[in-house]
Specification:
By secondary structure, the protein is α/β, with parallel strands linked by helices. Helix content is 24%, strand content 32%. Helix 4 links the parallel strand 5 and strand 6. Helix 3 crosses helix 4. The radius of gyration is 16 Å and the shape is globular. The two termini are 23 Å apart.
Amino acid sequence: MFDIAFLGTSASAPSVDRGLSSALVLYRAQRFLVDCGEGTQRQLLRSGLGFRKLDKVLLTHGHLDHILGLGGLVSTFSRWESISKLSIYGGRWALLRVGDLMKVVLRGGEVAMKIKLVTVNPGKIWEGEGMTISAFPVTHRGPGCYGYLFEEDSHRPFLA
């Protein structure tokens, strides 16, 4: 069974009560952060879920309100957490923007963390531990926008 924690549900600007876009999908030992708007770290801490085992980020698109939280998250992971690698999945344009952001964060070699940028295309993008994630294109402002389908593997055949 999948658990979803909505960390930010606001539009392009935060409000007093709602942070920028971010959700955490949990399945067994796997954790997937979908988008990472500003304030995501704080919301992870407030939710009680923390940073443990969070090593995959899925970006729906490259607008800043969905990616700007990555800089602080990478800095925190590198300095205070035991997470040594982070895989960031997204469309080509989103990953170009993330790459630019990481140049600022990683400048001077201050952050010793392996960051893997994975270009998403329609279809299966990840599988393991009894589940798969597939990407599908969505229409939004700008190129390379994706939604993600989380599917648990079948346990037994359905008998009518």
